[in-house]
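Q: what sequence does this backbone want?
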């Protein structure tokens, strides 16, 4: 006889509900975008659970932020978070976007993405990301607003998704986002 035991995460115990971004501590780190040669052009947002990650939050609050000078330094902190994203101001590229499995499918990714879109829509006409076709997040978010293309930006050769911000702003108005 074979017995299967599923490992439960804390979210399995509670009914599925939308999590609020305000329940998480956000840390914003800004470094140079060395690829596009833009000073302060690469932004990282890292999110920590205000209830479960108090020690990590206190550690970051008490550390000298001047010691964080490059991507490697930020990644060391980001991997301790429940989720993080990096994006580039000049090109509209979303570089890394990760949310730990226990926190996925509760609306956090959508809220973080909307925050980035609102910030980037001031300067850019498109937002793009390099990823595989039929990606579970990018192919479905905001009712399929991201379009899969072979070359989402002049600076890359890979395929991915892109979002026309003019079209998306109409969607935001319609859905009161």
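A:
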């Amino acid at each position: 006889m074979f017995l299967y035991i599923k490992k439960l995460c804390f979210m399995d115990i509670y009914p599925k509900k939308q999590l609020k971004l305000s329940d998480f501590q956000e840390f914003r780190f800004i470094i140079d975008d060395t690829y596009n040669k833009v000073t302060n052009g690469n932004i990282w947002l890292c999110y920590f659970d205000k209830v479960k990650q108090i020690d990590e939050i206190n550690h970051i609050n008490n550390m000298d932020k001047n010691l964080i000078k490059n991507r490697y330094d930020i990644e060391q902190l980001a991997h301790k978070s429940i989720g993080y994203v990096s994006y580039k101001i000049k090109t509209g590229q979303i570089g890394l976007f990760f949310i730990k499995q226990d926190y996925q499918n509760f609306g956090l990714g959508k809220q973080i993405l909307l925050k980035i879109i609102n910030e980037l829509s001031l300067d850019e006409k498109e937002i793009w990301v390099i990823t595989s076709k039929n990606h579970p997040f990018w192919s479905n978010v905001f009712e399929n607003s991201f379009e899969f293309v072979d070359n989402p930006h002049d600076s890359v050769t890979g395929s991915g998704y892109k979002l026309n911000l003019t079209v998306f702003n109409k969607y935001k108005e319609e859905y009161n986002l």
